[in-house]
């Protein structure tokens, strides 16, 4: 069984920084990509950042220049460094990965349980 476990959420003041981390564990065989989505109250889930298998990151327009994604292929982890945070960044952040497990030889989408990020003074 595959699990994505996030850590690092919390409360931060406007202009501050926060780092989220996610590890894919269990019967992971091959990872295509890893990244982050977020969902604010009353809004649809949106892409924050994705680290593709070729190493090229994709960012949502609202976070470009402020957030940086990094992936450790050996440890099956992905991190998100978030700088210059503002109230619009308040949301539940979900780790995402498209990967193949050893028990099901096909790529599937997996999600973490989510971690709350609140930007407030």
Written overview of the protein:
- This protein is mainly β.
- Helices cover about 0% and strands about 60% of the residues.
- The chain contains no helices and eleven strands.
- The protein has strands at about 1-5, 10, 20-25, 30-40, 45-50, 55-60, 65-70, 75-80, 90-100, 105-110, 115-120.
- The strands form two sheets. Strands 2, 4, 5, 6, 9, 10 and 11 form a seven-stranded mixed sheet that branches. The chain has a four-stranded antiparallel sheet with strand order 1-3-8-7, with no helix packed on it.
- The radius of gyration is 14 Å and the shape is elongated.
Keywords:
7-stranded mixed beta sheet; 4-stranded antiparallel beta sheet; 121 residues; 0% helix; mainly beta
Tally of individual helices? 0
Q: Quaternary state, please?
A: single chain
Q: What pattern of helices and strands is seen along the backbone?
A: EEEEEEEEEEE
Report how far the terminal alpha carbons are from each other. Answer: 40 Å
Q: What percentage of residues falls in helices of 4 or more residues?
A: under 10%
C-alpha geometry? elongated
Q: What gyration radius follows from the Cα positions, in whole Å?
A: 14 Å
How many strand units? Answer: 11
Largest sheet: 7 strands, mixed
Structural class: mainly beta
Q: What are the segments in which pLDDT stays under 50 over at least 5 consecutive residues? A: none
Tell me the β content. over 45%
Which whole number gives the mean pLDDT? Answer: 96
């Amino acid at each position: 069984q595959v699990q994505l476990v996030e850590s690092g959420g919390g409360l931060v003041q406007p202009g501050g920084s926060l780092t989220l981390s996610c590890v894919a564990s269990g019967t992971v065989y091959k990872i295509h990509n890893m990244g982050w989505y977020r969902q604010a109250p009353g809004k649809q889930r949106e892409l924050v950042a994705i680290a593709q298998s070729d190493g090229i990151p994709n960012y949502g327009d609202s976070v470009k220049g402020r957030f940086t994604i990094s992936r450790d292929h050996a440890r099956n982890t992905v991190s998100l460094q978030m700088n210059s945070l503002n109230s619009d960044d308040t949301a539940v952040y979900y780790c995402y990965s498209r990967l193949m497990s050893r028990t099901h030889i096909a790529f599937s989408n997996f999600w973490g349980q989510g971690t709350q990020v609140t930007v407030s003074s």
